[in-house]
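ARCHIVE CARD
Drawer: 12
Card no.: 0347
Subject: one protein chain, sequence and derived structure
Cross-reference: see card 0346
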Amino acid sequence: MNGIKFFSKDLQIANKRIILRVDLNVPLQEGKILDDTRILLVLPFLQELIKKKSKIILISHLGRPTGEKEKKLSLNPIFEYLKDKIKTKVFFYTGNINEEAKKRSLDLKEGEILFLENIRFFKEETENNEKFSKQLSELGEIYINDAFSCSHRKQSSIHKITSFFKNSYGGPLLKKEIDAINLIIKEKKHPVSCIIGGSKISTKINVISNLIKNVDNVLIVGAMANNFLMYKGFKVGKSLIEKNSEEIINKIYTEAKKTDCKIIIPEDCKVSKSFDGKPQIRERDKIGNEEIILDIGPKTVELIEKTLDNSKTVLWNGPAGYFENKNFSAGTNSIAKKNL
């Protein structure tokens, strides 16, 4: 992870077109954003680029479309969210990456944003297609990658696009993640515990696999834990899950066994029949068919706190539940208090 050139606050970017690759792969249900954490993390850097009067071409993906447009995987809900949060003009571009896209990028005024539709709607993205990468590169003058979770992928907007730029950088979120991992790897004191939350295993599989070799405990929380519960044979009702995750989880357990790393999953949960409903505590083997897991339960909180009390190094990534609703924020808040 050494040798990465990171974006500098001293860089003169006024009136420059900047391609910013971010991770806005947030969980959606019927067009509603269930967890806006990733968007909120991106906002400060976006605001900084706007303040510096750059012109921003924003690229992200959502889910795993098969190289064609799928309405349920459109970035439009995120676009609408950004329009409300950012005090500048944000344009949503749903066309092909061609001369029209280039013209739209050139037409941007200082501080404005051109937000491209789900980049994985193009099969060339996942193919790491050189021609497509070049077409993408022509939308900007400077390239910044701030999408840590997919930086390991050889895809056009992450990998080959950089070969067409004299100036390409890692963004602040990428730097923060790499600094944290380097701290664990190079300066850790055992026992080391790592809390992994959020919703998607596939975006964190490489991180988890690398951490397993260097930590003593991996605590899985958030919607990600639903997949681990299913893998262990527990029913999760109508909870958010990631399809076809069994192979990934099996790999995690196999590698953990080799390195004597303990994988800890929830023992109980807070559930409801809707995201704005009242919480009910359930043992992990008592989840109803109509219930949604939205937070870790008190037994799990106690288990995590005990594990952290016996740890000398802690790394935390991702919320423990649907913390936007205060009824389901206790797990995340308890972890936060332990790490203050």
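Annotation on reverse: The mean pLDDT is 91. The chain has two domains: 17-173, 188-339.
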